[in-house]
Amino acid sequence: MAARSAPSCHLRLEWVYGYRGHQCRNNLYYTAAKEIVYFVAGVGVVYSPREHRQKFYRGHSDDIISLALHPERVLVATGQVGKEPYICIWDSYTVQTISVLKDVHTHGIACLAFDLDGQRLVSVGLDSKNAVCVWDWKRGKMLSMAPGHTDRIFDISWDLYQPNKLVSCGVKHIKFWSLCGNALTPKRGVFGKTGDLQTILCLACARDELTYSGALNGDIYVWKGINLIRTIQGAHAAGIFSMNACEEGFATGGRDGCIRLWDLTFKPITVIDLRETDQGYKGLSVRSVCWRGDHILVGTQDSEIFEIVVQERNKPFLIMQGHCEGELWALAVHPTKPLAVTGSDDRSVRIWSLVDHALIARCNMEEPIRCAAVNADGIHLALGMKDGSFTVLRVRDMTEVVHIKDRKEAIHELKYSPDGTYLAVGCNDSSVDIYGVAQRYKKVGECLGSLSFITHLDWSSDSRYLQTNDGNGKRLFYRMPGGKEVTSTEEIKGVHWASWTCVSGLEVNGIWPKYSDINDINSVDGNYIGQVLVTADDYGIIKLFRYPCLRKGAKFRKYIGHSAHVTNVRWSHDYQWVISIGGADHSVFQWKFIPERKLKDALHIAPQESLADSHSDESDSDLSDVPELDSEIEQETQLTYRRQVYKEDLPQLKEQCKEKQKSATSKRRERAPGNSIRLHFVHGYRGYDCRSNLFYTQIGEIVYHVAAVGVIYNRQQNTQRFYLGHDDDILCLTIHPLKDYVATGQVGRDPSIHIWDTETIKPLSILKGHHQCGISAVDFSADGKRLASVGIDDSHTIVLWDWKKGEKLSIARGSKDKIFVVKMNPYVPDKLITAGIKHMKFWRKAGGGLIGRKGYIGTLGKNDTMMCAVYGWTEEMAFSGTSTGDVCIWRDIFLVKTVKAHDGPVFSMHALEKGFVTGGKDGIIALWDDSFERCLKTYAIKRAALAPGSKGLLLEDNPSIRAISLGHGHILVGTKNGEILEVDKSGPITLLVQGHMEGEVWGLATHPYLPICATVSDDKTLRIWDLSPSHCMLAVRKLKKGGRCCCFSPDGKALAVGLNDGSFLMANADTLEDLVSFHHRKDMISDIRFSPGSGKYLAVASHDSFIDIYNVMSSKRVGICKGATSYITHIDWDIRGKLLQVNTGAKEQLFFEAPRGKKQTIPSVEVEKIAWASWTSVLGLCCEGIWPVIGEVTDVTASCLTSDKMVLATGDDLGFVKLFRYPTKGKFGKFKRYVAHSTHVTNVRWTYDDSMLVTLGGTDMSLMVWTNEMEGYREKRPCDSEESDIDSEEDGGYDSDVTRENEISYTIRALSTNIRPMFGIKPHLQQKEPSTDERPPVSRAPPQPEKLQTNNVGKKKRPIEDLVLELVFGYRGRDCRNNVHYLNDGDDIIYHTASIGILHNVATGSQSFYQEHNDDILCLTVNQHPKFINIVATGQVIQQTCQVRKTKHFLLYLYCLVMIVHIKLKFKYISPFLHCYKELPETG
Questions:
Q1: Where are the beta strands (DSSP E) in 685-735?
Q2: What is the value of pTM for the model shown?
């Protein structure tokens, strides 16, 4: 049991050896506190040289590759690689996340830069277009985005002297950007004749529009505006990788290993050649430079950080070293000293002091190193090489003892025996060689039992046995030193192993998940004293398990920091530290081992270090210390809300059926009926899978939801009003703090959240995007400005919205298991909590992301499922209800106390001013004091306590309580059984609303002469409902089985009910007592009908394809109708009671004679002439038009004809209720459509006088009553019917001009290659580049000498003259409108044609032009506000693919017409509107 729980000890990151110098640049800076900030692997490091101490930022999930320092030098921005990379802005003092920017870039973030005031951040992606994004990083909002360049961008910077200007550089280009509104516009730098077209590696901006850039050939290019004005040749001997601007001037560093300092006018000050210093070496390459005062920081490609004091420039201080580029695999620890040894593919072996946190020895070998081992006395160090050899060195002076090569493949593992006599060497060719140490490493044995490469070795304590693991996951044993394989388990049984580094074996079974690739755990090391095991895997995760760890799927604590695979992990000799090494990140991590992790210790642990990641999310075993899920919760977690067809798929499906639709609409179709229906009352409440979805409004009405309807119930008048904006199941509801607005979230492929007004029933905001499948929980902030939502996608995504603007503020993945509730902190709007399956998490907004920390339970409780949560009386206090009936009390993220509150799960909790109220599965409501120390009062929901004014009957005592709300002197309660009750504080309970319980509802019958109906459901109840103003359930009866159909007898005295087990019964319609029952079939009864008139016969249809006919008086079966090939769906009698019409699941329309059941063949044309007593059939010529265009994917499930035979109502699988004119001949009839049910409408019935239509929702379990409004009566109201959406031209059609315009396609032009490039410079200013075909391939070889160009020598070039647009004839009127306006009191006219905006002076006939568009302008408008005179907006044709949303956008340009006299042309000049843009109001 203990082996499967997480260990109580803990690891804390103490030191990281290394620095990311390869493939990165400009990533090393001084902070305001004179600390040094840089990154390695997935960790941001803040190093204090004075204290020799490191702090770590660990908010990234993959390799960090870019870094920028805020102008105030406290905040740091870092960008990572990955499929969905993000940017973190964090505090270098506290190493806490301030903001997260995500959801825009792909592949990675190559460059970052803050602007002068630090309000904006620019980033460059690694996607194919190298996208450039500008962010308002505090809000986490992207301000602008544009494609950067077709090739790699290496550096980007804001022009610190010109706001809204940026410069970027990269492979053979430099671009100068202008940010205008939300548009980033580049102009390419013009190299001209001043310098060669070069790859620009770095840049810095200066005053007077000057930009300095470092080129690949070592020159510095100086730019004025976009033009290259001069070059500083030979500034460096090779590429300039880094350029840093400071108050004193500029510092540059290059591949030549030199640092050059320049003054503010870029005149040289001094040169520092690091290769010539004491610490220098040949090949040293500078990747990053930072100059502050008299100190210079230098980062090199080989992972070193130097600090240089200018006065002592020849004595640089080496403050950090790490391994160079190449995989890092070898790791060993000294047996008696706090030393660690590492070896890498960079051919170096290094010894690190774990106490001093420093490199104390280094030796370069001739081959890449793959493994290492130190013998028992610490004298010899053995190194296994990639070429199959191994070398032994003396640890003292790193001199060679012996070099042996017996193998050709890599040596992957080697170990000395505990007595120091032997060295075992494991090779990739499946062999293990044994060498005698005393015999100068003479080979004394060989182990040849493995069939795959050797991965791990361990010696027994007595040095007599060796165990091995190989690539196939096999564990083998050998007798030493000869190497004979041991197959007897008895011989091995008592062996004690000196170390445990094998990944296979009984003792380490628990480190493997239930489903795992055998090779994804790379290293293991056991701590026998602490009884703990540390592992390293391919996902960059270090894990701590208990040891021994016997059963698969054990719990663990996990730690992140390494970016990719962790290749090796070892305990130090005294078990104080764990050392881990990263393969691709080349870093060495030193973790401090904290043996006992108590709550007081945890308070000092940085949240992102462990509390967010310590417990396994992946552990999926049945843990003995976690209770089983309650049956209700288990049932709820298994619910799926995925649909085969969503309503939002309809337009796409109809598009696919266009041809079929056109052929049908060529015939004239009947118009839609004049009648309409209006939703009048809904019986039901969604409680079985929802919670906390029931509230009082401001004026005391009750708001809740059922199916796709938001309901506002007036309990005094017993009336309802409806919000009908949703089109699928509403799953959650919350109310605004002012109790006047409601937010509801629904099921959907792209589900929406609606915020609507309870008074006007109108939507205020609809939020879409970022969720999938559905919304499970929503909550308003205390100020009502923000809304938090949780999705039911696989990651249960959490989104924070500014709901009025419809803007996503932050987003994060919640949990892999279901989240039941989200609650926003009433005191701090940036904080919230989520609770769910074994989940309690505390979140904080950080820019565009959310930082989550798991609740720390400690020894006070168990990792239980949380069903509800609320905040308490301070911002730190939170309370949650568990599935076992406890209430957990939290302070910050720590559990401080648990209180037993209910028997069974606590489903709902509500915070009061001076206490709390809870409700649970036990049907008890409990009132508590403000600290949950005392239960003040309890209320039990019992039938005996029902008040006389109740609108129905309570089905059972103590129903499971799902929602609780207080207000207006009452407690409002929602139950799992679909009931809403109001509890008076003095005790009486009033039942207000109720519906069917969980289970599909199919059976529906209306009374022949009274306004009542009967329903029967899979919840095993038969119910009678009053449809008159009392709107209540009159009677209910429990059945032995669920039912699917029911029918009143013609006199209304009997009620026949068909059950799911093939039986049916007849009951007294008043008392619901049994009259008679039969059981002749095994499959469910699908329809049941009395014959008209006296009701002599009863027809009973079943799913086994038969209809039985019974004589009601004699109670005998008198006939059987046979011949159907599928189950029966609908039956109808003719008016004489002699003929039955039958529909089947195979879409057959059959006829049988009654009472014997003889099959009859009746021609289709004759069917219409027969007088039918009822029409519920969905097949036949009379109702052919009720089937939609997409009839293949959705069924019409039910229909019912009014008694005057004029209107046919239908229900279908998509939840639509439709009205058709009867008969509906011809395909795709016109209709009126109503949305209220969420999924399939299972039954529809008109009342006896056609005044009301009653409909049933199958899985939404609701009974809806609609009033029938006759033709001519039309009341203005929201959410009326939607007319048929197939309109043919005969119904009015289009005017010919409108038709032509409607058919114009702009797509082809938008996709074609533009004649004028969107970005760029005028032709005569362009530097000619070779075409794509002519460009040489990229090569690392030295460049070939240029060929002499003699053909143009001595020839005088003719200058290219520029053309100036003078006059444009034309105006775009053929497909545009409202695009001509007066300006300047009628002096000028503004209009457009082609891609040009034209300002035409009426008096002189002269024209001025706006020519920044690059394709047809389609629309134009003028700002009428007096504050913004002469401001014009124009929109053009373009297709721009966005990296995130992949949708087409029309670019919107804002322009200002500024009257300026052009010096040369004496002409009016039109410029982009920029300087006044910030004054525009947000609503403008």
A1: 695-696, 702-706, 709-714, 719-723, 730-735
A2: 0.81
